[in-house]
Structures are given as structure tokens and as C-alpha cells.
Design goal:
Largest sheet: none
Order of helices and strands: HHHHHH
Low-confidence stretches: none
Number of helices: 6
């Protein structure tokens, strides 16, 4: 977690591993020290990211972790809108 080059998906994998340990999100947030429990919840959601979002992240099209979380949420609540956004048809 202390790596400076850790991307949001690396952090999401860390959170998933700690939850499998099992640790609560509150405990994970405490271990991270400077992060809130809501941050841990958002990061954990990135483990549900569709492949198209991972491709967009790897291509540098989406870099902001908060936007990543919102896009994952959009992919679950409005998959058609999500696909249009990812195709560049709608503005984020």
C-alpha cells in the first residue's frame, strides 16, 4: 500500500485480499491511516469494473479514481448509458 506507483486497481486488489483475510472495511481504512472507510468502499467497487473500463484506464482515457468509481457504479445501474459513455457518445 505504501508504493507510490500503486494504481487504483492495485489498491482494489489489496482491499479484496484484506477482506478475504477477513478484515472489515473499517479495519482496512484504519490500516491505511490516511484513508476513510468510504474511500475503501469506493476502491473495493473497482473490483467489479467491466473490461472496457480497464482498457480505458490502461489507455489513459480515465485516470481519476473517483471517476473510475462512478463509472463502475454507472455500469451497474445503467449499462446502456455506460457503454455509450465508454464509446464516447455521451459526455461524462
Amino acid at each position: 500500500v505504501q508504493r507510490e506507483d500503486m494504481d487504483p486497481f492495485d489498491l482494489a486488489a489489496f482491499v479484496a485480499g484484506r477482506e478475504a483475510a477477513p478484515e472489515s472495511r473499517a479495519e482496512i481504512a484504519r490500516r491505511l491511516g490516511y484513508k476513510s472507510q468510504s474511500f475503501v468502499t469506493e476502491v473495493a467497487r473497482l473490483n467489479e469494473a467491466p473490461a472496457s473500463l480497464l482498457v480505458a484506464y490502461d489507455a489513459g482515457r480515465v485516470e481519476n479514481s473517483r471517476l473510475l468509481y462512478r463509472l463502475v457504479r454507472l455500469s451497474k445501474t445503467s449499462p446502456v448509458v455506460f457503454e455509450r459513455v465508454m464509446a464516447g457518445e455521451d459526455m461524462i
